[in-house]
Design goal:
Distance between the termini of chain B: 71 Å
Structural class of chain A: mainly alpha
Oligomer: heterodimer
Structural class of chain B: mainly alpha
Order of helices and strands of chain A: HH
Strand content of chain B: under 5%
Distance between the termini of chain A: 40 Å
Helix content of chain B: over 70%
Number of domains of chain A: 1
Largest sheet of chain A: none
Radius of gyration of chain B: 32 Å
Radius of gyration of chain A: 22 Å
Order of helices and strands of chain B: HHHHHHHHHHHHHHHHHHHHHHHHHH
Number of helices of chain B: 26
Largest sheet of chain B: none
Number of strands of chain B: 0
Helix content of chain A: over 70%
Number of domains of chain B: 2
Chain lengths: ~80, ~600
C-alpha cells in the first residue's frame, strides 16, 4: 500500500517535470521565431540603408542574431 | 494618551466580563474571528506566491481595471488591509499611479462586503461550528508541510475555521445574553437612533480595529434579535467610517502616499455615508425592494444587512468613479512629496515597501537604475563630455573630437557622495526582505547587488583615466590624443547604446545590442590589435605614454564590460533570453 502511494507520488512529480520541460521548449520555440522575425526585418532594413556605417551595424546585428539562433538549435 | 485609553478599555473589559459571564463568549468570539482573519491573510499571501502582487503591478493602468481588480481580489482574499498594504507599497515604490491605487482601494471597499455575505449566509444558516473544528485540524496539519502552497492552504483553512468558530461563539454569546439582558430594549428609532448607532459603529471599529469583525458582531446580534434592523444599518455605516479613521491614524506618521490613500478612503466613506444617511429611509425601502426581487426573505435581516452593505459601497463607488482624476489632483496638491534636496538621496527605497517583498525587489531595481544614472553622469564628465551633447546622436566620433574643454570633477568625492552612499543604501535595504524572496526573485536580487558593485567599480576605474584624459587631451602629440579620443568615444558609445537599450521594450534587442558592444570592445584592446607595437616602433609615442595607454585601455575595457553587464541585468528580465545570453557567453569562452 505504502509502495503504491510512493509510486503514485513519483508519477505525479515526473508528470510535473515533463510539463515544465514542455513549457521550456515552447518558450525556446517562441524565441526562435522571434529571432527569425527580427533577422528578416533587419535584412529588409539593410536594403534601404543610406550610409555604409548603418548598413555595417545592421549586418553585425544580423550576424549576432544568427549566432543566437545557432545557439538555440544546438541546445535543442 | 493612547496608552491610557487602552488601560481604560482593558479595565472596562474586565468589568464587563466580571459583571456578565455571558459576554465572555461574545468578546472571545470577536477575538477568535480577528485571529481567523489574520490567518486567512497570511494563507493567501503564501498561496498566491506573489501572483497578486504581479497582477496589481500590471493591471492598474486604467481606473476601471483597477476598480475591478480591487473588487475581485478583496472578495476572494477576504482582506482589504492586505490589498491596502500592497497598494501603498507599490505606490511608494512608484510602480503604480495614484489613480490606479485609489481605484484598487475603492474597489476593495466593495470587495470587502463579501465578508458580510459569508457571515450572514454561512454563519447564520449552516451549523458552521461543525465545519470549524475539522478545518482547524486540517489547517494545522497542512501548516507542517514544506510546500509553501500547502502551507498557504493550511493557513486559509485555519483562518476560515477560526472565523467560523468566532461567529459561533458570538452567536452563542448573544443567545445566552438574551436570557439575562435584552439589548433590544436600547433600540432607538428615527434619526436620533441612526446618529447614535453610527457613532457606536465608528467607536467599535476603532477599538476592534476591524470593520469585518464589527459587521460580524452586528450581524450575529441582529440575527439573535438583540438589535433592531435600522440600528444595525447605522452601525454598518459607522463601521465603514471607523475603518478609515483607523487608516488615517496610521497614515499620520507615514509617507505622503499613505496619507493620500487614507484621506481618499476617508472622503469616499464619509461622503457616501452622508449621502446615504440623508436618504436612509428611501435607501432602506430600496433594499427591501431589491431583497424581494432576489429572493431574500422579508424577515431575514442578516442577509438584508449584507445587501445594504454591498449596495451602500457600490453607490459610493459609482459616485466617486467619476471624480477619481479630480481627487488625485486634490490629494497631490494637499500632500506634496518630499522633493529631492540632494541627488545622492535614494528615490525609491521606502521602508514601507519592505512589507511586500515583490514590490521591494522592484523598488531596488529602480534604485539601481538611479545609481546607474548617477554613474553615467560621472563617467561622461570623466571623459570630458556632457551627456546632452552625445546622447541620441549618431556622430559621436566627431562630437568627442570637438569637445576638448576640461571638466573639473573630483571623482573620489563624487564616488563617496553619489555612488557609495546609494550603493550602501541599496545593499542595506535589500537585507530587510531578501529572506522573504524565493527562487528566481532571490537570484535576481543577487544580480542587482552585483550590478550595483559593477557600477561602483566602474566609477572607481575612471579616476586614473580622467587624470590622463585631461593630460593628453591638450597634448601636442596627435597620436596619443587620438588614442585617448578613441577610449572616450568607446565609453560614450557604450553609454549611448545603453540609453537606447533603456527605452527598448524588446529584450532580445537589448541582448543583441549588448553583445554587439562586446564585439566592439575588442577594438579597444591595443595589445591584441597590435596598435601599441606600431605606436612604439615608429616612435609616435614614448615608453611612458605607452604604459599609461596600456593601463587606461584596460580601465576603459573594464568600465565598458561592467556597464554591459549592468545593462543586461537591469533590462533583461525574460528568463529564456537571459539563459540565451549566458549560453552565448559560455559558448564564446570555449
Amino acid at each position: 500500500m505504502k509502495l503504491e502511494k510512493i509510486y503514485e507520488k513519483i508519477k505525479e512529480y515526473l508528470l510535473l517535470i515533463e510539463e515544465d520541460k514542455d513549457l521550456e521548449e515552447k518558450e525556446v520555440k517562441k524565441l526562435q521565431e522571434k529571432i527569425e522575425n527580427k533577422i528578416s526585418k533587419l535584412k529588409e532594413k539593410t536594403k534601404f540603408s543610406k550610409n555604409i556605417e548603418e548598413e555595417n551595424k545592421l549586418k553585425e546585428e544580423i550576424s549576432i542574431l544568427k549566432k543566437f539562433k545557432k545557439q538555440l538549435k544546438e541546445k535543442k | 494618551m493612547k496608552k491610557y485609553l487602552s488601560y481604560i478599555l482593558l479595565a472596562l473589559l474586565c468589568y464587563l466580563l466580571y459583571e456578565n459571564a455571558d459576554s465572555k463568549f461574545i468578546v472571545a468570539g470577536v477575538g477568535i474571528f480577528i485571529i481567523g482573519m489574520h490567518f486567512m491573510e497570511d494563507g493567501f499571501k503564501l498561496f498566491s506566491g506573489g501572483m497578486l502582487e504581479k497582477l496589481i503591478s500590471k493591471s492598474t493602468d486604467t481606473t476601471y481595471k483597477a476598480i475591478g481588480l480591487g473588487v475581485i481580489s478583496t472578495a476572494v482574499l477576504q482582506s482589504s488591509s492586505l490589498i491596502a498594504i500592497i497598494v501603498i507599497s507599490f505606490l511608494s515604490a512608484k510602480l503604480i499611479t495614484l489613480s490606479g491605487a485609489i481605484g484598487v482601494v475603492f474597489g476593495s471597499n466593495v470587495g470587502t462586503t463579501a465578508t458580510a455575505w459569508i457571515v450572514s449566509y454561512f454563519g447564520m444558516k449552516i451549523n458552521i461550528e461543525a465545519l470549524a473544528l475539522p478545518m482547524i485540524i486540517f489547517g494545522v496539519i497542512f501548516r507542517f508541510y514544506k510546500n509553501k502552497t500547502v502551507q498557504g492552504i493550511g493557513n486559509i483553512l485555519l483562518g476560515l475555521g477560526f472565523v467560523f468558530l468566532g461567529i459561533g461563539y458570538m452567536k452563542d454569546g448573544f443567545e445566552d445574553l438574551k436570557q439575562g439582558i435584552d439589548l433590544s430594549q436600547f433600540a432607538i428609532e428615527g434619526y436620533k437612533g441612526i446618529f447614535i448607532y453610527i457613532l457606536v459603529g465608528i467607536v467599535a471599529t476603532i477599538i476592534i480595529q476591524s470593520s469585518s469583525a464589527t459587521l460580524a458582531l452586528t450581524i450575529t446580534a441582529l440575527a439573535t434579535g438583540q438589535i433592531i434592523y435600522i440600528n444595525a444599518i447605522a452601525i454598518t455605516i459607522g463601521a465603514n467610517i471607523g475603518t478609515t479613521i483607523t487608516a488615517v491614524m496610521g497614515a499620520m506618521v507615514s509617507n505622503s502616499n499613505s496619507k493620500r490613500m487614507a484621506l481618499a478612503l476617508l472622503i469616499f466613506n464619509t461622503v457616501t455615508a452622508v449621502i446615504v444617511t440623508s436618504i436612509l429611509f428611501y435607501f432602506v425601502d430600496f433594499i427591501d425592494y431589491l431583497s424581494k426581487n432576489i429572493g431574500i426573505d422579508e424577515k431575514d435581516y442578516a442577509m438584508k444587512l449584507s445587501l445594504f452593505h454591498t449596495v451602500f459601497n457600490i453607490s459610493g463607488l459609482f459616485i466617486f468613479s467619476f471624480f477619481i482624476p479630480k481627487l488625485v489632483n486634490f490629494l497631490k496638491k494637499l500632500f506634496v512629496e518630499d522633493k529631492e534636496v540632494y541627488i545622492q538621496n535614494t528615490k525609491f527605497l521606502d521602508m514601507q515597501v519592505v512589507a511586500v517583498p515583490f514590490a521591494a525587489l522592484k523598488a531596488t531595481r529602480k534604485e539601481t537604475v538611479h545609481l546607474y544614472e548617477n554613474a553615467s553622469e560621472v563617467l561622461s564628465h570623466a571623459i570630458m563630455l556632457h551627456r546632452h551633447r552625445y546622447l541620441g546622436k549618431t556622430d559621436i566620433s566627431s562630437i568627442v573630437k570637438e569637445s576638448t574643454d576640461i571638466i573639473e570633477l573630483n571623482i573620489e568625492e563624487f564616488y563617496q557622495t553619489r555612488i557609495k552612499s546609494l550603493y550602501s543604501d541599496i545593499i542595506d535595504y535589500s537585507t530587510y526582505f531578501i529572506n522573504d524572496l524565493e527562487g528566481s526573485e532571490r537570484a535576481y536580487l543577487y544580480e542587482l547587488r552585483s550590478a550595483c558593485r559593477d557600477i561602483a567599480e566602474a566609477v572607481k576605474n575612471t579616476e586614473e583615466l580622467q587624470e590622463n584624459i585631461s593630460k593628453y587631451l591638450l597634448s601636442n602629440n596627435d597620436y596619443i590624443k587620438d588614442e585617448y579620443n578613441s577610449l572616450r568615444e568607446a565609453i560614450a558609445k557604450t553609454i549611448n547604446t545603453i540609453n537606447e537599450i533603456k527605452s527598448s521594450k524588446d529584450e532580445l534587442d537589448v541582448l543583441a545590442k549588448s553583445e554587439l558592444l562586446k564585439e566592439y570592445l575588442k577594438s579597444l584592446d591595443v595589445i591584441a590589435t597590435g596598435r601599441i607595437d606600431v605606436l612604439i616602433r615608429e616612435k609616435r609615442i614614448d615608453k611612458k605614454m605607452a604604459t599609461t595607454l596600456l593601463n587606461d585601455s584596460s580601465h576603459a575595457y573594464n568600465i565598458i564590460n561592467k556597464l554591459i553587464n549592468v545593462a543586461k541585468i537591469l533590462w533583461i528580465e525574460d528568463l529564456t533570453i537571459k539563459q540565451l545570453g549566458e549560453d552565448y557567453e559560455a559558448g564564446k569562452n570555449l
